[in-house]
What we know:
The protein has 67 helices and 35 strands. By secondary structure, it is of the alpha/beta class. The strands form eight sheets. A seven-stranded parallel beta sheet has the order 13-14-12-11-15-16-17, with helices on both faces. Strands 29, 30, 31, 32, 33, 34 and 35 form a seven-stranded mixed beta sheet that branches. The protein has a six-stranded mixed beta sheet with strand order 20-22-23-24-21-25, sandwiched between helices. The protein is elongated. Residues 1-6, 86-122, 993-1001, 1049-1055, 1131-1135, 1215-1232, 1410-1414 and 1445-1450 have low confidence and may be disordered.
Amino acid sequence: MADTLEESPTDWTESQVSSWLRSIKVKDHYIDKIYKEEVDGKILLTLDEDFLKSKIDMKSGPAHFILLKRDELLRSLQKCEEKKKMPGGKKAVVEQKNSHKSVQNLSRTSENPSEQPKSLQTSKEDCKPRPFDQDDTDFIYVKHRVLQPESGAFNLISPCHEFKSFAVAAGLDRTRLQAKFAKEVLKFATGCMNIRTNGTIHFGVMDSKADAGYVHGEIIGIPVQEKDIYVDALDYIERCFSSDKEHLRQCVRPPRFIEVMDLVNTEKSYVVEVDIVPSLKIVKNKVYAVRLPNFKESTNKIEYEKETILRRVGSKTEPVSDVGDFYQRIRDRDAQRDEAEKNQFLRAPGTCQDLGRKLTMLMTSGKKFIEKEKWFILVTNKFSPEDLCHIEWLLNMKIFCVFDFDPDSKKSGLCSKYLQHHTANMHFLQSYRMPSGMDIKEFSDFLHLFEQTSWIFCNGCTDFKGNETPCDEMTWIKTKITLLRESVSLICKQILPKGAFQVIFLLTSPVDKPLLHTFYEFFTDMEGHEDIICISESETNFQKWQSFAEGSCGTAVVNNSSVVGMKMCHVNATLQHVQPVKACVSKSLPVLVKGTCLLETQVEEQMYCLEILTVDHCNETSKDFIDEEKANIESQFYRGGRVTWLNFWLADHKYVGEVIERDAYEETSKLLKDALKYNADQTPVIVINIYHHPGSGGSTVARQVLWKYRKELRCAVVKPSYSAGVVAQHAVQLREHTEKDPQSCLPVLLLIEDSNKEYLDDLRNELEVAVNTKKIQYETLCFILLSCRRSNDPEKRCKESPLQNVSVTHKLSAEEKRKFAGKRQVLEDKYEPDFILTFVLMNNEFNVDYVQQFVKHLLQDIDRSSVVTRLIHYVALLNTYVQNSFISQSHCEAFLALHIHLERFRQHLFEKSLSEQAKLVFLHLRDDKTHIESIKIIHPLVAKEILQQLLGPQQTHNSLAFDLLHENVLFEHRFGRDDYLSFLRQLFLRRFKISKGDKYSFFSPFMIHVLENENRKPDEAIEFLRKAFQKVHDDPFLLQELLLCCHAFMPHMYNKFDEAECSSQTAAKHCPINLYILDIKVQLFRKWFQAECKAIESKPKTAENTANAVERALKALKCFQECETAANKEMDNLNSYGFFAEVEVGYSLLKLISSLQVFANKGNGHSECMKYLVTDYIPEEVKDAWEPFHDQLKNLKKLVQDVLEWISEDLSYFQTDVSSDEVEIPESPEEKISLTWLGKKSSEYGKYFSEAYSFAFLQHGQPSHQANLTPFQKRMLIYYLGGGNITSILSKVIDQSNLVSLLEDILSPYPSNALKAKFGQRDIVHYIMTQIFLNCLSPQNKKIAPLKDLQALCRQFPTDKRKCLPGALFLLTLLFWPDDSDTNHEKEKYEIVQSAVEHLEKGYKTKMKDIPQRQRRLYIHFFLGNGNGLDKFVHKRKFERVTKVFPVSEKCKKWFSGAAWKMPPEIINMMKQVSGRTEDGKLYLEGPQKKKFSILPLYIPSVPQSNENITFYLGFTLRGPVACNISVKK
């Protein structure tokens, strides 16, 4: 670094700049940012504070520090240059070296602050001195702020000031320091007393312009190790004055130590001040002479100067020259002092501020009421018990978070009081450190930020047992200020948009430095003081905060935004008048006995995922608010806004007209009434669906139903983005609130809006689980799910299930037309037509011609080239193709280049900037959580028509979207950015699913329009998606769509495969283990392979012309293997389609190989081909052309076999006994795969590799040359017959009639003495499974091996159970299950079973992953029966005639409720009841002595909650044994 600094900074590189910054101890993350901005020496010299704050995101303190050090460096180098020019001499050389040494040690703090130069670029902030001679003042100085210059006597009462830097002296020893301090104080005091003026001398303030780099009066501070040194220094009074010593003691006040706050460093420093107050009654007729002390180094002792009379002359203290004249004028000076002291108390009384109005205006932002949507952040410290009695106004505020500096707050402070009324989440500053890889939405959900108040304990919590103890100020600054900075920055810059919140500093006790740092962080991150309010009853508490804040904002701003001197009880009463709802109003819920119960706010907030509708909902709204806002609320609804509860309440109370009830409302009400009637076949959870056209009023109908039934049922709306499990938990809590018996509660009516069928099924399942857990009678109606969903054909959905579905369309019935016509007349008399646009369109049933004419008239005089029209274009594009889309208002402001300086005028200025057309069609929204304001067009059909008419003849939807992608300002804007990018992704990605009544599409509606209606070529579409991919920050899922596009259009773009491969590699690079992207990549190569095959379809197949096709197939298979690897690594999702497709490609490749002339022309079937694939043999015809592929092709047989086994294992875990005709609509490729498919494919695989000899077997039962068959050939023969894996064997058992002979055929290729044969693990599993299935069908069959032999075979499985296949572990569980007749020695088989079960459980967890709950139900292969040996295993097929009568949707519920176990006696007699017990909710088997054997219940809620003796039926699954039909022993 020394070498670097010897050369001019102009020549520095970026690395040298970084080294210099590191030497002055700038934080590493700032250095990295500066380095990335390529700041070299030249640029360093031009830096200013704005650049550092805006580009580097640096706080003001570090920016100021860097500029200070930069200018100090320049001055130091300049001095060096000047000294180099001086004449030679040893002294000059030494000084030059010292100068270099000081430059090299810039990082170290100089002992003398005067050596630290000031930045010429940075202005200093002014500040006021401490109030004169006030003992109870809590005051603080901020380093580098500047006091007014030193002054002389003015009016004798206003103090004169003298500054002393005292930087060197502060480091002296006690004797020297006291002598120096006493000399300066007594000199100043004598001068002030002699001319009768008040004065203050300040130590730690720059006193001379010669202090290079500092300005006169700049606060620096000095270190004070022992305060008593300064206090005791005044003992020099006794030695320095020969008389009137007591007068000095009375007039010279003790030193005051004012702390200096440094925003950069944590070293503690002070300004030491001494006040001089020469009261006339003390100094009258007196002149004071002083002997000033000096420490003489030569004698090492204190010596005193001769006695001198001193006086203040201007800003200096000087000796009196004419002593005689000075004495003669004593009377004049005393008279002046007397007059000044009298006038001091004769000031006119000050006017009293209207603090009530000031407080109201600040809290309401100049409006009549506090905004209901605005969030508040509270920063506070310790509350007094009296103040805690008056916080109703706080309890009624929307508090986002509280920065609480009171460690006892939860025990006895504000937090404890707040928790009596509300729920809050307790956090610490480190809680706001966002983990890497988590986005802001996930982080907000993780902390539940918008659901319950976040209470942040900033200085520990005494009620917490963890390591969060309070600490002193300096420790806090060292350890927690960074956490505070990160927390405030995260809230202000990423979570809450500007204007959506206000920060209230509530100063209820003395202010400490951490609170001041909090103000500084908020002021910096909020970019101003506009939304910061300070409330303080005590002026003393306020002064310290004020002295700090004034330096940042100025006196006027601080005073205008502060309410000082108002008692908390007055604040409480004043603010309750301007709150839109009354404070602490009780809410009620209906109860079964027709009364009501209280719903406490605290309990309501615990059910945060529900918007609960109470009996007295909206009654808390203040009348003044209603009178003021009722017209706005009504017009917003009829203009297209979503209906609110207040709309219904206002209509009920006749403040506005009634809300029209559409026919669908009556239909839904009738379905609901029918459901509420007792029905023996009633289920505990029912679903009513409302399907509606977008914008047709479906949501209004649903909410009308809830509003009507809120006094008869417990009603709530499910908030979006919460899991079904959490919603179910809160719904149960709502149902049982204050009720004694869960059997007797009112049903809960839940409205679920715009959710998919999977979510609804999951929620229903979770609620059914809860009902069964509570042991509620099955016929009791507990929950009604009112699902409100958009549909393209609601009427069709209604016809499909008329007793469950209701449709809402744009078409009006005759009665509805009459209602709408009457309402329109009323509204048109009341409002301008522009205010009820959507209602007018609805009244005309959104007739196409009417909408066209409306839009045509609207756009008649629009300026098509204006930026506002461009904005309308973009909003219309999104609203047309993306449901519920919008653009945030702040995005629009940035797009329109609006510069809004005052938040309170934001909405006015934004609306003023819009054209008349935009004002008419834009609907203003506000997010329920973040309150980010946004806009959309009043109706999707209007948006679609605007888009159509606004586009010129040369413009297309595609070109408009392309323009949108190039609007950088929309991409870069911060707030609402995630929503904006999400809508863009949906524009390109979101596809319709296959579902009844809705259109199915391979691409998003936008892409379909572009490709079909705008005649875009596939390569143009691909290029467009590629641009979108690059713009949306290389979004891998957008690239997935790009690959899908390539995949879909490959028949039209054969020459684009190389480009597609490049895109697939890029996608995989971004998300290497994303299964869906890998799937698309797989399909690309699959299509490529098919295209290669098609190209040579009509040609004779040779090794040369098939080489390309073989290469593509092998690449596809490699991709499949990547899918398999990813499926094992991916912990959250399971997408197994790649496995199924791999089988298809493998078969196609085998077919292609077989079609080659070299193989097809040979006799004896595929023997030549098999020889090539199975042995080392390579025919000459393919040797060279296929040289790169031989090894991979010879591994093909194993690859396909492994995949078939993987699929078999996967399907054998979960419910696979549902036949294809029972499944309503398969929603993914893998759901189409059935047992039949796997059995067929396994058989085809075996046939291909056994065709040469399987014919003889099928004809004669035994091939003549069976003894000559290799193990591989036998295995392939078994595959062909259907015994290749567990699932294919199961498929034969389910699907075929001649089962016994088929299973005998499968056993034939196995050796007659299986125990002596050398079986592989997989062969043993298949052999034993076939034996067990055969025994289930034909127990007396001679081919069945004894149980003992099968158990002996199982002992050949690896002793290390981790190496066992799941099928092997399953067989160990099955075959070693003890019989009642077993001896105690034999019953040790439990140990084998338990070991196998432990490893099955581990395997299950890797298979389970993110499978929906309804698809995760285990498949039971066998039940434990009453027989012995193999006869004790009862196959599930025995139950088919019982369960097949149930609809697929009811089958599971019948099993859980026990209805499925009401079987004929002959089947019940086959089943064995097993004994066990429950302990603390867990189920254990009776029998094992050494170790408890825990059994998994098939249905967890069926387990008794108490400890009971139980019986159950035992089922065997690949997760281990499960308990079914659990019942308590009588």
